[in-house]
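We give its fold:
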Amino acid sequence: MQPTDKAVIFSAPSGSGKTTIVRALLETDIPMEFSISATSRDPRGAEKDGIDYHFLSVDEFKDRINRGELFEWEEVYDNQFYGTLHSELDRIWNNGKAVVFDVDVYGGVNLKKTLGDQALSIFVKPPSIAALEERLKKRNTDSIEKIKTRLAKAEEELAMSSSFDFVIVNDSLEEAIKQTKQVIEAFLK
């Protein structure tokens, strides 16, 4: 198998450091490219459409589901959808690279079921719920109420870590990146 028909799936509770790890790995020589997810949520901070996410309205997202344009999707929170457009997979595989997914835990489990041995699924785990709460507060992008919602969801998501091929505890970012890079390189060989 070449990287052109493989995928690496990253999932984690919000605030675990998954996106930071993914961005660091994309700067290496590993032949992989980020799949830009579609979402119906509003942009956070400096996020840009077509770079961080494909931002769609709830109605646009539902229309694309009905037209079969999504490879996978989830309603993560009420009327807040996330998913992967078929066009993203085609774009990356046509560039000769493995697809990198940065998705919620349910999306990660579903992608692994769909892609099977074609995919490596990685769960990024915070060292503790207290550390996760601190990271979410430092991010300064969500209200206290939203942080409480994310923490409640994190408890549920952490219980699903055994559904993934590899679990990395992000206690030391440098070590987490190093370990994850080794696992991906072995998978793509």
Observations:
- The mean pLDDT is 89.
- The beta strands are 7-11, 32-34, 38-39, 54-55, 70-77, 80-85, 98-103, 119-125, 166-169.
